[in-house]
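Consider the tokenized backbone below.
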């Protein structure tokens, strides 16, 4: 038996942090493909998104959770419970923070959650491309005593700075284990769910501040034509108010067309074929406080 062969490492890693610190951007960067949606608006990620990074020495399964924040409705409560329960299930936690010497109430709340966990925590200071190199040491100094970190690693998820070093460090902390997924798997998310999220991302990017939290996207139909090479997708954007419906559709349907054409490009890249995307808009008042509708739009608890 050859004992010189390096042991295969595998494990589960979660990315946590306040909304909009770059968790989805970092995960997309690490696995090399866009799966999680990104936006400059908070609460972009609503489900745990499981993605897979595989190389010769091992496999990392990433769980990108919703941001930990103070819940305002049932959807918010669901998002927070998903994020907090994930901490107990993984082998490693990546806590992303902004480059700042100010540690606010939001960060302190997360630190309290992490202090109750036995899982190793990496502090990831993201967005270092926005600050001078000399300043990074002051940010590390500000955070280093708030928790007993396994590692502190500054990165730029957007530019890819230090992300290779981050992966090397992660493998050092992961246990020996099996390959959970085939080497070419990059996500366990159903295609329909990713398509719905891509439509929602374009809506988030194009709409007014007050509307995005009140929308969900449901894919009603996704079917490949018999001759192949083209997929028909029908999707519905659900909003909470009649006034929001008018804004989403826009003057002479202009906003809806813009959202649709931007989403179609991403979906075609994902599916590697031509897509005929049709979008509708429906009003379902207070869907964010309805357990049934939350589940109907794909936001499922881990116990379901």
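A designed sequence for it:
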């Amino acid at each position: 038996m050859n004992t010189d062969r390096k042991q295969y490492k595998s494990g589960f890693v979660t990315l946590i942090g306040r909304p909009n610190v770059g968790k989805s951007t970092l995960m997309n960067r690490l696995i090399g493909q866009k799966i999680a949606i990104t936006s400059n608006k908070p609460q972009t990620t609503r489900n745990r998104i499981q993605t897979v990074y595989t190389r010769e020495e091992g496999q990392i399964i990433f769980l990108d959770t919703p941001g930990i924040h103070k819940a305002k409705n049932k959807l918010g409560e669901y998002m927070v419970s998903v994020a907090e329960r994930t901490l107990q299930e993984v082998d490693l936690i990546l806590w992303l923070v902004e480059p700042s010497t100010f540690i606010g109430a939001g960060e302190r709340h997360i630190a309290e959650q992490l202090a109750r966990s036995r899982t190793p925590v990496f502090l990831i200071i993201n967005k270092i491309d926005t600050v001078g190199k000399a300043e990074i040491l002051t940010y590390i100094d500000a955070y280093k005593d708030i928790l007993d970190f396994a590692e502190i690693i500054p990165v730029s998820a957007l530019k890819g700075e230090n992300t290779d070093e981050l992966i090397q460090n992660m493998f050092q902390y992961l246990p020996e284990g099996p390959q959970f997924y085939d080497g070419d798997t990059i996500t366990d998310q159903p295609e329909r769910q990713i398509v719905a999220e891509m439509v929602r991302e374009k809506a988030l990017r194009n709409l007014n501040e007050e509307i995005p939290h009140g929308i969900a996207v449901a894919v009603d139909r996704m079917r490949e034509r018999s001759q192949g090479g083209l997929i028909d997708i029908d999707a519905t954007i659900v909003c909470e108010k009649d006034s929001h419906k008018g804004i989403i559709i826009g003057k002479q349907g202009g906003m809806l067309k813009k959202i649709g054409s931007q989403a179609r490009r991403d979906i075609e890249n994902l599916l590697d074929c031509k897509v005929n995307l049709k979008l509708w808009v429906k009003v379902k008042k207070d869907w964010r406080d309805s357990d049934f509708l939350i589940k109907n739009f794909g936001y499922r608890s881990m116990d379901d």
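The chain has two domains: 9-173, 191-296.
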